[in-house]
Design brief:
By secondary structure, this protein is mainly β. It contains one helix and six strands; from the N terminus they run βββαβββ. A three-stranded antiparallel β-sheet has the order 1-6-3. Strands 2-5-4 form a three-stranded antiparallel β-sheet. The chain is elongated, with a radius of gyration of 17 Å. The chain starts with 13 loop residues before the first strand and ends with a strand.
Length: 98
């Protein structure tokens, strides 16, 4: 109809950020990640880091981490399993427009 804007654009869907979950930063099984670009509605995937060791991967798997919400530049993660006692490198796959 008149005045309808059908203008669309293709958005580059992925921006990957390397991040380290520091063992000392877990508080009662909760970890607050601070990364520029996280918003209330942004979408992130949390995956093992490129150079993760077998020991770190086992700790990541044992932690059974789940997403507990997000806001401007922060996300909250919870270890539902064993809270990591070593630093763990991860990659944050950020989806959307940057």
């Amino acid at each position: 109809g008149a005045g309808t804007d059908y203008d669309t654009k293709w958005v580059t869907p992925v921006h990957i950020v390397s991040y380290t979950l520091k063992a000392a930063n877990w508080v009662n099984g909760i970890y607050t990640v601070t990364i520029d670009g996280i918003t209330d509605t942004s979408s992130q995937d949390w995956i093992p880091g490129v150079n993760i060791t077998k020991t770190q991967l086992k700790a990541l798997q044992a932690a059974n981490i789940v997403d507990r919400g997000q806001s401007t530049n922060t996300a909250t993660l919870e270890a539902c399993g064993t809270v990591p006692t070593i630093d763990i490198p991860i990659r944050v796959v950020m989806r959307g427009e940057f």
